[in-house]
Amino acid sequence: MRQLDMKQALTKIMGNHDLTREEARSVMDIIMSGEATSSQIAGVATALRMKGETKDEITGFAEAMRSFSSQLNTNREGLLDTCGTGGSGIHKFNISTSSAIIAAAAGIRVAKHGNRAMSGKAGSADVLEALGVNINLTPEQGAACLDQAGICFMFAQLYHPSLKHAAAPRRELGVRTIFNILGPLANPAGADRQLVGLYDRSQTELVAGVLGELGLKRALVVGSYDGLDEISISEPTRVSELLDGQVRTYDLSPEEIGLKRYPLSDVIGGDASTNAAIIRSIFSGNERGAYREIVLANAAACIFVGGAASSLKEGVRVAAEIIDSGAAQRKLETLIQTTGELAHVSK
């Protein structure tokens, strides 16, 4: 039974009262089922932003979003996702996508969740498409891709059709709301390990706590001091580490994991084709500068969270070996070939 309707929820939030986890879930149920008006959705999202979203509110919204999504049926044990919120306004290349492929080449099962660009020039869906990956697989085909290639991509637009009800209010508001946080929290495969990037580093501990409530076993939630939703090689990065239900927060510098510092301007990317060329250059071994270094930092985090390294510094070493051996390039080619073949298999 629904505990609150939209008007009651808005009244409570505007009175500076927090929603319970159950109340938040009921509100998101109403939104996702198409029963809320655009004004009501915008009002609740704005009021939550002004009050400040709580762990219970974000968890309840994420649980409802997961319940409405299409699911990729697979064993979630040891399954990794790497995804950021975007919204930094810094047009970097696709670091988390590159890192996901390297993690898969390290033997970690990867179910990458992502979308087209919202605030940048090229989202993960855009750059994978430019690389030759078929991003439009069904959940059944996605599960087969994961089994065959050790990695799959889940295009958010295909897995979360009910989010269309919030699209217009989000677009018209044009500011960060709880919906920006939810994308990385709604992996359709139920991944139990995750690297999450936030451009607002003040929320890393909050989001790590939400991931714990959602049942994840291990996670790193990162936000750099120069505004990236990634581990930076230009400034320190705030890291909130989830392990066995406990969250530990610390700052991480590039030097601590054996990497050099580069200006932020050195990791700027471009459109999908430009970023695809950057990724191919890294994987071919031709790139030895900032692009490679920032991918090593974030791939190391994936490898560490995935259990293939005992520390971030060791993860950097493993990631470098994977690139230099050609394994990352081979994993990309396997993903391209597998998605192409599966897309042509009749249902």
TrEMBL record:
Boundaries of every Glycosyl transferase family domain copy: 78-328
Residues involved in Mg(2+) 1 binding: S96, E230
InterPro entries in the cross-refs: Anthranilate_Pribosyl_Tfrase, Glycosyl_Trfase_fam3, Glycosyl_Trfase_fam3_N_dom, Glycosyl_Trfase_fam3_N_dom_sf, Nuc_phospho_transferase
The Glycosyl transferase family 3 N-terminal domain, residue ranges: 7-68
Residues that, per the record, bind anthranilate 2: R170
Catalytic activity, as annotated: N-(5-phospho-beta-D-ribosyl)anthranilate + diphosphate = 5-phospho-alpha-D-ribose 1-diphosphate + anthranilate
Gene Ontology BP annotations: L-tryptophan biosynthetic process
Residues binding Mg(2+) 2: D229, E230
Cofactor (UniProt): Mg(2+)
Key words, A-Z: Amino-acid biosynthesis, Aromatic amino acid biosynthesis, Glycosyltransferase, Magnesium, Metal-binding, Transferase, Tryptophan biosynthesis
Pathway(s) it belongs to: Amino-acid biosynthesis; L-tryptophan biosynthesis; L-tryptophan from chorismate: step 2/5
Entry's Gene Ontology cellular component terms: cytosol
Keyword check for Chaperone: no
Binding-site list for anthranilate 1: G84, N115
GO molecular function: anthranilate phosphoribosyltransferase activity; magnesium ion binding
Cofactor note (record): Binds 2 magnesium ions per monomer.
Binding, 5-phospho-alpha-D-ribose 1-diphosphate: 84, 87-88, 94-97, 112-120, 124
The protein's assembly and partners: Homodimer.
PANTHER family, sorted: ANTHRANILATE PHOSPHORIBOSYLTRANSFERASE
Task of the protein: Catalyzes the transfer of the phosphoribosyl group of 5-phosphorylribose-1-pyrophosphate (PRPP) to anthranilate to yield N-(5'-phosphoribosyl)-anthranilate (PRA).
Similarity remark: Belongs to the anthranilate phosphoribosyltransferase family.
Protein's recorded name: Anthranilate phosphoribosyltransferase
Taxonomic path: Bacteria, Bacillati, Bacillota, Bacilli, Bacillales
